Amino acid sequence: MKSESIPPSREAADLRREDPRALHEQLTTRLRGEFLSAYSPGHQIPTEEAIGQTYNLSRVTVRRAIQTLVDQGLLIRRQGKGTFLAQPRPRITYEIDRLGPFMDAFATSDEKVNAHLVDFYWGTEKQVPSCFAPAKSVLLYERLYETGGNPHGFLQIAIPAHLGEHISRADTACIGVYQILKEKIGIEPYRATFNISTELPDQILAARLGVSSGTPLLSLERISYDAKGEALERTLHHLLPEVYRLSVNVHARHSQTRATAPRKKK
User: Which of 170-193 are b and which e, b meaning 16 or more Cβ less than 10 Å from the residue's Cβ?
Assistant: First the structure.
């Protein structure tokens, strides 16, 4: 829905230039309050030019404030349409201490999440993950996860060639990789390893997730193996940290030796 310009009060428009906080930081705080009180999710906010005129600020200052609100998930940019107040972002718990598909996290979090196949192709020898060596080619595909039109997860999946030759584009568009391995090839992962880090996205990944290239992402590398230790798949998860949290249950390691009872004094 189109925005309606709401003239701020004199007090609202008067940002403090002597304030130790930069003008774009003050504007970010001011706009957050105004947008939440004046607009509903899905409504378009005023243009950067209109906001700049209202507050007598440069386009650069306004753009930095708007981008901060985009990175924080309050706003969403839609190419060729404008900037809108985003739907509330979901909160999703990903239990990485159990061997299961990524989609299970959405079921346990009771969130309606849509998955879209972004790309499907055969990679060259240079694109083969080290866990598949000495393979010469690899099947690669990418899936985007969003809620209410707001993207929050981007997965890059790699499958070794001898397994990938049994998988079609249609398979990867509608079901997860664990289900593909089980139903199309007849194998199930026996164990998996996770490497967890943070990363700054490149321009392509930032555009996929609707954030700036300076927004840190939660990055997970999962490699799944069969009972013989052969790698079956490698998935790179690029997740918005304000949406996802990781859950791990840790148990105490049981001692292999029984404690010796103290001797009684004679």
Answer: ebbeebbbbebbeeebeeebeebe
